Design the sequence.
């Protein structure tokens, strides 16, 4: 049924299955404002994104979202549920899956670690640009669509 060519070891029969990279992102909203950080390194240097990073092979993706938030911003939070999952094929490091978790702040103070050079909370109608792709842009767009428009 699966019509894909796969590399197979002729000695043992082991089949190589390439896999998606899995990333976890933190969606932190305070007073209807979304936390974004600006990337300080390639790829997407100078673009804004949700605090995020790759999930380690032995790590629960929800814990990875909490860890990445702490590493990139100094903020401590707990996961409050999955916001969404986004396939991406536009990252030069490989195709992947971005799991975006809603997080609730419980401590820490905003400080940057070098991966990001700026951070802040932004209202839906005042988001910085440009946003990274790799699923971040779609997750942010979905969040914006859910925010009540108080400007009317």
Sequence:
């Amino acid at each position: 049924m699966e019509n894909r060519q796969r590399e197979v070891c002729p000695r043992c029969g082991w089949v190589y299955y390439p896999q998606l990279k899995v990333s976890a992102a933190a969606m932190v909203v305070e007073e209807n404002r979304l936390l974004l950080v600006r990337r300080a390194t390639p790829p997407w240097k100078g673009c804004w994104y949700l605090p995020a990073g790759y999930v380690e092979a032995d790590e629960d993706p929800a814990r990875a979202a909490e860890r990445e938030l702490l590493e990139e911003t100094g903020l401590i939070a707990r996961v409050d549920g999955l916001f969404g999952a986004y396939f991406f094929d536009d990252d030069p490091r490989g195709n992947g899956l971005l799991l975006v978790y809603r997080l609730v702040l419980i401590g820490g103070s905003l400080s940057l670690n070098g991966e990001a050079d700026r951070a802040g909370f932004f209202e839906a109608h005042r988001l910085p640009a440009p946003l990274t792709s790799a699923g971040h842009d779609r997750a942010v767009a979905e969040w914006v669509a859910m925010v009540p428009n108080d400007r009317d």
About this structure: The chain has a mean pLDDT of 94. The helical segments are 61-73, 136-146.
